[in-house]
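Hi Y.,

Following your request, here is the sequence exactly as I used it, all 338 residues.
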Amino acid sequence: MEALLYEKLGKNQVQCKICHHFCKIKPGEKGICSVRENQNGKLVSLVFDRVIAASCDPIEKKPMFHFKPGSTAYSIATMGCNFKCRFCQNFDIAQMPAGKKGMIQGRQIQPRTIVEKALASGCQSIAYTYTEPSVFFELAYETAKLAQKNKLSNIFVTNGYMSADLVHMVAPFLDAANVDLKAFDDTFYQTYCQARLEPVKKTLKLMKKVGILVEVTTLLIPGLNDDPGELARLAGFIANDLGCDTPWHISRFHPSFKMTNIGATQVSALERACEIGKKAGLYYVYTGNVPGLASENTYCHNCGALVVNRHGYTIENYLKEKGACPKCDTRVFGIYSH
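Below is the corresponding structure, written out as C-alpha cells. Let me know if you'd prefer a different format.
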C-alpha cells in the first residue's frame, strides 16, 4: 500500500514524514524502521496488512490505568520499529526486519476484520502496541476510523517519536496513548535508542494539547536512567508541561535483547522513583512489572481514599459515576464510562 505522509523529491527519492527521523530514502531502499520502502519513487508500507501479533489484553497491560479500567483491548502489531533500543522487550518482532535482511512476516488481516474480531471478543478498544504504531500507521489509521464508527476506542502505545503531522491526522480518532519517556537525557536516547529526547517531549505536549488522554511510562534501568536528579527533572517535566494529573508508570527492567548484562531493577529503586514523582507534585505514580505493591493502586489525590485496587490485572473499581471519588466526590483523572 502507498504510504501516508511523505514527500516526493528529485531523482525518485522520497522523504518519509511519519516520524522525527524524516528519512530521505533512495529508490529500492528502506527507512530506519525497515518496513517503509521507496519503490520507483513511491513510498510503500510493507506491513499494511501483515499483523504479526494480535491478542485480547487487559487494558492495564498497556499500561493504561485511567482509561476504562477493567476493560479489555484488542491489541495488534506489525513488525518494525523506528527505534533501535538495546533493551527492547519485544525485539523479536520489533527488530526482525532490520536483523533478518528485510524479512517481513505476519498474517494478512484487513482493518475491517480487526474491528470485527475486537467486537466479537467483547473489547471496548483497539490498542496499537507491542511494536511502534507510527511505522504501521496506514493500518492503524484505517482501523481506527472503522473502530470509531463501531463505538470502539483507539489507543496508541508508542515511543512518541511520531511527527506533528501524524499526531494531527490521527487525533480525531485516537482516544488515549501511553507514551514511553525512556529517560530525561538526550545522550541516553542517542546511545541506547538511536533517537533524540526533544521530539518525544514535543509529541507529549502536542498530544495533551489536542485532547488525547496521555499516560507516561519509564522503564527504570539500573545505572542508566535511574539517577535521582534526572528522575526529578523528568517528573518535573510531566507535572509542569503535561499536568499533575498525568499518570506516570515506572516499570521494572528485566534483562533483555542486548542488555542481558544488567540485572533487574530493585523494588526499592522503583519505590524511590515513585517518591520523586510524588514530590514533584504528580497525583498518580505507579510501579510496573512488580505485582502486589500498593503503588499499583489509584488513590484520590484530594483525600487519599483508595479508588482502584489492583493486583496484577485483577482490579476492584470503587469509583462512582464519571470517575468520582466515593469518599469526597473529587473527580479522578481519566475516562471511565463505556
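The CA atoms of residues 48 and 138 lie 6 Å apart.

Thanks again,
Q.
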